[in-house]
Amino acid sequence: MLPAAAVFYFPWEINSGVAREGESVRTFGRLTCYQPEESRATLSAQHASAQHQVAVQTMFVEPFDPVIGAQYTVLGEVENVEGVGLMVRARVLNCVDGVNLALLQKAINEQRSFFKERETKEAGRPSPADPT
């Protein structure tokens, strides 16, 4: 059986507790720091007037050629690391420099509203085993 598909979270949602430990997530951000000796990278994103950072464990995607300042997307699992907080253990880390962030955020919101609408429709529909 395959694991559930990863949910796209905004970087400011990762550390705010919306994403839970063990959950598969997708997120994005600008690579601001890479520490190869610790297999750790930091992605940053601006939201409103605040700068948000996501710690990324890069052990499973190394070796990779980091481009500091470039946009990246990451797919991985959230884990709670002592002294760091929530960290994404990357399974995939792709450079997507040049991506239109406003369009990406709009697409994520559209996807969320689609899934929410689909869930409400399925919740209102009787199951096939239901005799009513």
UniProtKB/TrEMBL annotation:
Nucleus as UniProt keyword: yes
Family, as annotated: Belongs to the TEN1 family.
Superkingdom field: Eukaryota
UniProt entry keywords in alphabetical sequence: Chromosome, DNA-binding, Nucleus, Telomere
BP GO annotations: negative regulation of telomere maintenance via telomerase
InterPro entries: NA-bd_OB-fold, Ten1_animal_plant
The species this protein was found in: Myripristis murdjan
Protein's name according to its UniProt entry: CST complex subunit TEN1
GO cellular component: CST complex
A Pfam family hit: Ten1_2
Molecular function per GO: single-stranded DNA binding; telomerase inhibitor activity; telomeric DNA binding
Intracellular or extracellular location(s): Chromosome, Telomere; Nucleus
